[in-house]
Amino acid sequence: MNAQENIHTARDAAARYFRERGYVGDAERIIRGEGDDDAEVRIALALIAIMTPPPKAPPTKRNGRRLVGEEC
Fold first, then answer.
1. Exposed, middle or buried: residue 30 (CB in 10 Å: 0-12, 13-18, 19+)?
2. Contact, 30 vs 41, CB < 8 A?
3. Beta bridge partners of 65
4. Rounded distance, CA 66 to CA 26, Å?
5. How much is the pLDDT for 28?
6. What's the sign of the alpha-carbon dihedral 46, 48, 53, 57?
7. What's the pTM value of the predicted model, to 2 decimals?
8. DSSP H/E element including 4
9. For residue 41, what is the DSSP state?
10. Cβ neighbours of residue 61 under 8 Å, at least 6 residues apart?
11. How many whole angstroms separate alpha carbon 15 and alpha carbon 32?
12. For 5-58, what is each residue's pLDDT tens digit?
């Protein structure tokens, strides 16, 4: 996921949270992007970061040769 997808996902999650608790106005404000500094959006972004594994590092090299995954 990229940053743009992450913020949309976080907004959707926060809006759903508000809507389920009866705060429809707040949910609509979040969807419009006016509540990105709200704790619910920030928590959703943090959870996305925790649940998304970091990209795999390229194989380690030494003297121009790969040490991992080298075909013989």
1. buried
2. yes
3. 62
4. 53
5. 96
6. negative
7. 0.71
8. helix 3-20
9. H
10. 67
11. 10
12. 999 999 999 999 999 999 999 999 999 999 899 999 999 999 999 998 777 766
Exposure class string for 3-22: b at 16+ Cβ within 10 A, else e: eeeebeebbebbbebbbeee
Q: How many residues does the chain have?
A: 72
Task: Give the list of residues 6+ apart from residue 36 with CB closer than 8 angstroms, or none.
Answer: 7, 11
What pLDDT, on a 0 to 100 scale, did the predictor assign at position 13?
Answer: 95
Closest CA to 45 of 57, 58, 36: 36
Rounded to whole angstroms, the Cα distance separating 42 from 22 reads 20
Record the tokens describing residue 64, joined without a space: 């121009």
Q: Cα-flanking dihedrals φ and ψ of residue 3, to 5°?
A: -60, -40
Residues in CB range of 7: below 8 A, 6 or more apart: 36, 41, 45
Residue with tokens 């913020």: 7
